[in-house]
Amino acid sequence: MMRLLRVECQGQRGFTLLELLVVLVLIGIVASLATLSLGNGAERLLRSESERLAGVLRLARDELLITGGADRALGLRRDAYSLLELVILDDASREWQPLLDPQLGPRQLEEGLLEISFQQNGNRRPLPQTGGWEPHVYLSNTGEMTPGLIILRVPRQNLERHIEIGLEGRVEVLDAQPR
Predict the structure, then answer these.
(1) C-alpha dihedral sign at 94, 108, 57, 75
(2) pTM higher than 0.85 for the full model?
(3) Which listed residue, 16, 32, 55, 100, has the most CB atoms within 10 A of its CB?
């Protein structure tokens, strides 16, 4: 009887090849799903920031259409953007100032991770790095906008997203530069 128990115990050591293969396949599937869900952080940041900027433009356009308020503009810098309003300082001077609004107000991009450029009529317009705000895309209370192309780019990588703005107020996010 003792001999039978020893033989039976010796047969239960280790895993079969099939069990090992099933475990390895499951680990591989879980690892690949985790990798896909994480993705490239810079690409995800670029995608979310371009969608946010396009949403800001659409929201500002819709708000102007509904309220019929004063014209506004989008001010761009290489590292930030904001909706601007024209403020009358005195009888002779006016100045574009950023809106003090959580959604439409100044948005600072993470330094070194994203940068903005702007094209109008196929020509790149220089953007200030810091300092005051100047208008680049004018929004009218009729829904019209200054046509142009805002480019968000991840420096030192070949990652770009484009926001195409049409005269009639169309705002479209594109992966590739329009022709």
Answers:
(1) positive
(2) no
(3) 55
**What are the structure tokens assigned to 11, written together?**
């047969």
pLDDT in 10s for each residue of the chain, 179 residues: 555 555 555 556 778 888 888 888 889 888 877 766 655 688 889 999 999 999 999 999 999 999 988 889 999 999 999 999 988 888 888 888 999 888 888 999 988 889 999 999 889 888 877 778 899 999 998 999 999 999 999 988 888 999 999 999 999 999 877 76
| Structural domains of the chain sorted by starting position, each given as residue range(s) with its CATH number in brackets | 22-174 (3.55.40.10)
- The answer to whether 166 and 147 are in contact (CB under 8 A) is yes
